[in-house]
Every structure is written in structure tokens, then in C-alpha cells.
Write a structure and sequence with these properties.
Blueprint: H1 2-12, H2 19-29, H3 32-37, H4 40-43, H5 51-61, H6 66-76, E1 80-81, E2 102-106, H7 110-113, E3 119-123, H8 130-145, E4 149-152, H9 158-168, E5 173-176, H10 190-199, E6 201-204, H11 216-227, E7 230-233, H12 241-251, E8 255-258, H13 269-276, E9 280-281, H14 285-292, H15 320-327, E10 334-335, H16 336-343, H17 347-360, E11 363-366, E12 370-373
């Protein structure tokens, strides 16, 4: 999938085409390589591509050679994943705006990427009270000791305390930056940044050298929510980036928890607002761990009783194109490109057929644009 990897990177460099539009292109054309070859009229058929947008996109696209870009970009940014890579974080593939490029530094744990080791996001205000700091450290320490990976944004305040609490307990933590992977912000967190790389991972959707930008920080909050099975808001005022993360978590069907605080504490009013809207309350470490333990394992296999055997459902009568694509698949993962080759059809038709087969329940999609027969 080296070729497709180059096109995820190339599309990410095209102005006015963000993660949502790139995902739509991939879904519409089957691959981003096919989308790159598409004419202006074909691009105009994709939702979000108006006339002006198409004109600017086609002009920008003509200035980029995807293969050369990949080679040049990798010099300054040697370590990154795209959704075409098998190691790309599984949970991020579920959201409507997965980062087209995800840079990383530190110790990669593939079981985290596969969703086998659960990750929990911890966020909150940059100006916490002693109460907020204390409980953030207690909670992150407890999570680390029970095998959870703590995800936060390495910002001042709650984020910093979440990372420190996890690291002090010998656990793994992920820091999602709103800057390039090589830019430490705030600068006073340099030692924390270095410590996280030894014991965890630093990730960002922005290339090396990207400076702090106020627009980037709300955007990176979707990555924290997307990576996490649950998001904990420890202390936050009514206008807080932590609440943006909670909104993303709700949108992505993640559980949201909030630490209750005093009505007299402005830094707790955002948490109280979340609780009034149905967020789970954090009563203590034990109660939280019990609640998190009820989250279904992504790889749980339901065992049928030995004395019964469920008969497989008969395959319905399929249209010729659907049948041809289904015949190209086995129970083993098969890449999209191989399916296109074996089916002898164009990528757009194969993509459409796979989607229909997935809706029928005959095919399942796996990370890295791979498919298998159910």
C-alpha cells in the first residue's frame, strides 16, 4: 500500500481539503490514488466540492508529485502513519475525520493501535485547583496500575498532571500535540516531553517544525477523543477546550466521565454542566475502574453453547457485480488493490460493491483498507 500512502500524504498538502473531505474522496473513489486522477467534473460529484473549491484543488494538485513528495517528506518526518498503513490506530479509523497523516515519536505499542490495550483520555483546564490536580494524579495513577494507557494533550494544568501521575506509576501515556512532533509547547514541559518518549508516545497530525497555532489545539482534541475508549474531564470552566473534547467523545460514541466539584469553583462549572447532560460521575478511583471495566473488549468473541450450532445464514441472490467482488474475498484479509485486480473491475465500482456487501453483512472492513468475507 506504499502508493496509497503517498496519496494520503499528497491530499493532506492540498489547501482547502481537510480530513473530512479526504475521507469522502476515499469513500467515493475507492482509493485516493483514483481520486488524484479524477477530473474536475468527477471531483464536483463529491459532497463539499463546489465549483470554486474544485478549481483551486485541481490547480494545487497539478503542482504535487505524490511519490516525490513522500520521499522528500520522509527525510524530515521519518515516522508517520496514514490510514493506508496496517499499524494506523484502529479507533481513529472509526471517526469521520481521521488524520490523513499521524506523526509519532517514542515507544510504539501496537496493541494500543489495535485497540487491545484500552486508552483513556484525561483533559481539563490549564489552571486547575489543588483539588483538580490531586484527583487527576490519583486517577491517572490508578489507571496506569490497572493497565490502561492515559491519553492527554501535554498542555499546562490537568494534562501535565495526568501525564505525570501515569508516568510515576510506571504506566504508558500518549501526548497528542497541537504543534509539530518536534516542537514542545508549553516550553516548560520539555522534561515531561522527553520522559513521555521514553515510556510512551508523542503524536501529532502536524509535520515537524509546526509552531503553536490557536486553531490546531481544538482540532487535536478530536484525536484525543478518537483514540480513547472513554474521556475523563477532571476540572473545566464553562468555556474550555476540554468541553470540546467531551463533545467529540459524544459524537464518536465514547463514554464521558466528569469529576464533580463545588458550585463556588468556576473551574468546576463545566464538569457540573456535563454531569447535568448525562456524563458519568467520578466518585472515586474504585468506582471509575469498575465503570471502565464494563466497556466491552474490542476483541471479545461470543462463545455459543456447545449443544447448539447456529447454521450460517444463506447468501442472498446478488447482482453480478456484487457476486464477483464477493468471490474475490476469503476469510483472510485482502487489500483493496488485490480485490480490484481479482474482480477485474474499476476501483469505484469495487468500492461501491464492498460498501453494499458490508451493509448486507457479508463483508467486513479491516484497518489499512483490507477486507474479508464474513
Amino acid at each position: 500500500m506504499v502508493e496509497e500512502r503517498a496519496y494520503w500524504l499528497a491530499w493532506s498538502q492540498v489547501d482547502r481539503v481537510g480530513p473530512v473531505l479526504i475521507r469522502r474522496l476515499q469513500q467515493h473513489f475507492g482509493t485516493l490514488a483514483e481520486a488524484w486522477k479524477a477530473s474536475a467534473s468527477q471531483l464536483g460529484q463529491v459532497e463539499g466540492f463546489g465549483y470554486q473549491n474544485v478549481t483551486k484543488v485541481t490547480a494545487a494538485r497539478s503542482q504535487i508529485n505524490p511519490e516525490q513528495l513522500l520521499e522528500q517528506h520522509s527525510v524530515k518526518n521519518p515516522n508517520f502513519w496514514t490510514p493506508a498503513d496496517a499499524d494506523y490506530p484502529r479507533l481513529l479509523l472509526e471517526i469521520p475525520s481521521p488524520p490523513p497523516v499521524l506523526y509519532y515519536r517514542g515507544q510504539v505499542q501496537l496493541q494500543e493501535n489495535q485497540g487491545i490495550i484500552p486508552m483513556v483520555g484525561i483533559v481539563g483546564t490549564r489552571e486547575p485547583t489543588e483539588y483538580g490536580k490531586r484527583w487527576t494524579r490519583k486517577i491517572s495513577t490508578a489507571l496506569a496500575k490497572h493497565g490502561f494507557t492515559v491519553v492527554s494533550g501535554m498542555a499546562a494544568g490537568i494534562d501535565t498532571n495526568a501525564h505525570h501521575g501515569c508516568l510515576s506509576a510506571g504506566g504508558r501515556t500518549l501526548a497528542v500535540l497541537g504543534t509539530g512532533i518536534d516542537v514542545v509547547y508549553p516550553p516548560r514541559n520539555l522534561s515531561l516531553y522527553e520522559e513521555i518518549q521514553k515510556q510512551g508516545l508523542v503524536i501529532s497530525e502536524y509535520p515537524a517544525g509546526s509552531k503553536p497555532n490557536r486553531v490546531h489545539f481544538p482540532q487535536r482534541n478530536r484525536i484525543i477523543a478518537g483514540l480513547s475508549r472513554a474521556v475523563l474531564v477532571m476540572e473545566a470552566p464553562t468555556k474550555s477546550g476540554a468541553l470540546i473534547t467531551a463533545d467529540f467523545a459524544n459524537e464518536f460514541c465514547r463514554d464521558v466521565y466528569a469529576l464533580p466539584g463545588s458550585l463556588d469553583n468556576e473551574q468546576a462549572l463545566g464538569c457540573l454542566g456535563l454531569l447535568s447532560k448525562g456524563a458519568h460521575v467520578i466518585l472515586n478511583e474504585g468506582h471509575l475502574l469498575e465503570m471502565l471495566g464494563a466497556i466491552p473488549n474490542l476483541d471479545t468473541v461470543v462463545q455459543l453453547p456447545l449443544f447448539t450450532q447456529e447454521q450460517p445464514a444463506p447468501i442472498p441472490q446478488l447482482e453480478p457485480e456484487l457476486a464477483k467482488v464477493l468471490q474475490s474475498l476469503t476469510s483472510e484479509p485482502t487489500s483493496f488493490d488485490v480485490v480490484v485486480q481479482q474482480a477485474g473491475m474499476d476501483a469505484g465500482s469495487v468500492s461501491s460493491a464492498l460498501l453494499q456487501l458490508e451493509l448486507i453483512g457479508l463483508v467486513s472492513q479491516l484497518p489499512g483498507m483490507q477486507y474479508r468475507r464474513c
